[in-house]
Amino acid sequence: MKQRVVSGMRPTGKLHIGHYHGVLENWVKMQDDYDCFFFVADWHSLTTEYADTAAIMENIREMVLDWVAFGLDPAKCIVFRQSLVPHHAELNLILSMITPVSWLERCPTYKEMLDNLDAKDLSTFGFLGYPVLMAADIILYKATRVPVGHDQLPHLEITREIARRFNYLYGNVFPEPEAYLTETPKLLGLDGRKMSKSYGNSIYLSDTAEETAKKVLSMMTDPQRVRRTDPGEPDVCVAFNLHRIYLPSVKLEEIIPACRNASIGCVECKRLLTGYMNERLAFPRAKRDEFAVNSGFVDDLLRDGSCQASKVAEAVMTEARTALKI
Ligand code: SF4
Fold it and tell me: Which of the four, 181, 206, 210, 247, has the lowest number of CB atoms within 10 Å?
């Protein structure tokens, strides 16, 4: 029997290439070998975005278009929306009864996010409790593997502790999910900071070939390379972090010395990159345009997937309710 994987993304709208290489690409690989449940974490987005929900539905549609166009196949995995499966809320409530507040307060990302998002009032019950909702999302499907980066391991540990506590109190219902450690390449944006929608430095999966070319041309390079004749250093060049992803190794081996001895200019070097990027992204971008013509495409897909997810969730919740004797 295949191991079961559960993973979700908050609906942030159109995805950039950092999201793709950091998360989505792994999901696409996993769907062939695991029994995968991938969900839109729309209730999770309320933990920080509760004051402005106007864009959520649009963000969901844009994000799921990217998911499917770039390789998630609803015939191979279940793609659904968290809020269409109310069992997540039911299990969240039950788990919140048995989770000590101290476990949540010590969660390393809790204080970090409180500090980083100081423009928002996050002193809410829901924000403190988001690791409980996350635990509910995962164990509701009896997931055995969860794709995480090293920095997310503490979250998974809380999920494991909560599952263990439920099993200790009421009987063995939930497996403790194991980490599926994923390599997340640190992708830099146009300005050299981490690629992020909020910094306005992103290349989106849905950008046109022309938009991509324009953005790549504006990308920072080696700051010491002022004139065309100055030698450069790919290791400190921001654009080169994309060359490493998109160019075949034989091309990289040509560019590295050519940059160092100034026999290639940055414009030429970036044009080469753009060519490889647009070639690789062309097919999924065309798919995305095709799907986007049908305005009900994403809603229908999520409704179907949520129906399938609900069936699995209901069976697990029946076991949990029986164990709880309510
Ligand atoms: S030649 Fe290429 S690798 Fe070298 S600094 Fe310019 S863009 Fe970067």
Answer: 210
Burial of 269 (0-12, 13-18, 19+ CB in 10 A): buried
Residue ID of nearest Cα to ligand 1 atom 4: 259
User: In the chain, what's the furthest Cα-to-Cα distance?
Assistant: 77
> So what's the pLDDT on residue 118?
67
- DSSP structure class, residue 83: G
Q: Which atom of ligand 1 is nearest to the CA of 237?
A: 8
Q: Which residues of the chain have pLDDT under 70?
A: 117-118
Backbone angles phi, psi at 194, to 5 degrees: -55, 140
Pocket test for ligand 1, best of 224, 228, 270, 276 (most atoms within 8 A of CB): 270
Ligand 1 atom closest to residue 225's alpha carbon, by position in its atom list = 5
Contact of 71 with 24, CB cutoff 8 Å: yes
Tokens standing for 96?
């919140």
